[in-house]
Design goal:
Layout: H1 2-12, H2 16-69, E1 76-77, E2 83-84, E3 87-88, E4 97-103, E5 118-125, E6 128-133, E7 146-149, E8 152-160, E9 166-167, E10 181-188, E11 191-198
Antiparallel strand pairs: 1-2, 3-4, 4-5, 5-6, 6-7, 8-9, 8-10, 10-11
Amino acid sequence: MEKIATISRNHNGFTLVEMMVALFIFAMLSVAGVIMLRSAVDSDEVTAENLGEMAEMQRFVSLMEADLSQALPRPSRDERGDRQAAFATRAGGPDAAFLKFTRGGQSNINGDARSNLERVEYRLTEGRLERWRYRMTDGGAIDQPAVLISSVEALALRFRDKRGQWSDDWQTERLADLPRAVEIRFEQQGRPYRHLFLVGTGYL
């Protein structure tokens, strides 16, 4: 009877080989779980980054669309009092604005005694696409810029005039002239973008 009991206990236990196999399988499952978890975390980070870039681009497009659609054929004056074209573009230099114009529809939440017109500029500074706004329509100080998107390269513009012709340079016949549309092309982190905006929807 004692011999039979001993055999029964040995039969119900695990051999060393079985334990090694079980530990190996458990280790493989643990590694697979860690890899899947790491992959899920990386995927979430990439998704969040892409969503952030999409939101940034959408914010830029919406703001520029709102600005350009409300552009007005109103010349302005600089700090010296010299008249400036209603719509201007220039390149070169750290302070160069590739778009500069006056828009209407400026909100006045605080009810201050000021015009609903706003003079705005768009600049490209060290890869940052910035929006600048003047505190006054004619002359006056300019506020700190709002950075809309970053890592911008190879910025190029085209302008459609009243005859329907496209040109890389905006040449005004009159100070109050506005283009009909503006095309903006650039690259961001190797990806090309092209946006087309109507200018001064109510300007005929």
